[in-house]
Amino acid sequence: MHQARFISFEGIDGCGKSTQAHLLTNYFSAKGVDVMRTREPGGSPGAEAIRALLLTGATDKWSAETELLLFTAARRDHLEKTIEPALMAGQTVICDRFADSTRVYQGATRGDLREKVDHLHKEMIGREPDLTLIIDVNPKIALARGLARNSGEDRFEDFGLVFQEKLRDGFLKLAESFPDRCIVVNGNRTTEEVFKDLLTLTQL
Fold first, then answer.
1. Are 184 and 175 in contact (CB under 8 A)?
2. Which of 114, 115, 142 is nearest to 19 (CA)?
3. pLDDT tens-digit map of 149-192
4. 188: which DSSP letter?
5. Which of 28, 78, 92, 196 could be joined to 47 by an S-S link, Cβ 3.0–4.6 Å?
């Protein structure tokens, strides 16, 4: 019987983390692991409603402070309704983004809000993943990928290349701050090469 784990994927927009989360979920499932894949913002009905507010519309739709409150509200609902029940049931949870994204997006690049981000996280969330995989990709390549998806959820891609470069720097610094759970993976390779590394890092 495998111990339930909480694994998050992080990185800039278009880095390939969603693809890798999907591949890892399928791999674990094929090995007989009870696994669930989820995402942020979203992952529960209430959080999905907030996702639509956050990821669509003009770049100036929300201030960084308002984004922080909305992301925290979505994360709290996601934690209560999806993540904690799954972990309590013995499932391994693979999450496409978690609190680290808020630390970087709102805490470091959209405003100097890291202190507020950390305070809200401590008071309202209070949980970190067991393992965080940060997919590091050249911002120019990642931005082109993100915009090419034409998903309609491209509000953050619309901030442009300079913003994505700041995000990359933020995620790399974050990995240095949380070395016990954060691992940076070179995403400037084929999907198969990246996934091979992930299998080594997530050995059951």
1. yes
2. 142
3. 655 555 666 667 888 888 899 999 999 999 999 999 999 999 99
4. S
5. 78
Q: Which of 91, 83, 65 minimizes the C-alpha distance to 5? A: 91
User: 197: Cβ–Cβ under 8 A, 6 or more apart, which residues?
Assistant: 185, 186
Of 83, 8, 4, nearest in space to 47 by CA? 83
Tokens standing for residue 34: 């009870």
Q: 168 is written with which tokens?
A: 């990359």
Residue 157 has what DSSP assignment?
Answer: G
Nearest CA among 10, 79, 13, 93 for reference residue 46: 79
What secondary structure does DSSP assign to 107-121, as a single string? IIISSS-HHHHHHHI
| Cβ–Cβ under 8 Å, residues 70 and 50 | yes
pTM of this prediction? Answer: 0.90
For residue 119, which amino acid is it? H
Which of 104, 126, 118 lies closest to 174 in space, CA to CA?
104
Q: Are 59 and 159 in contact (CB under 8 A)?
A: yes
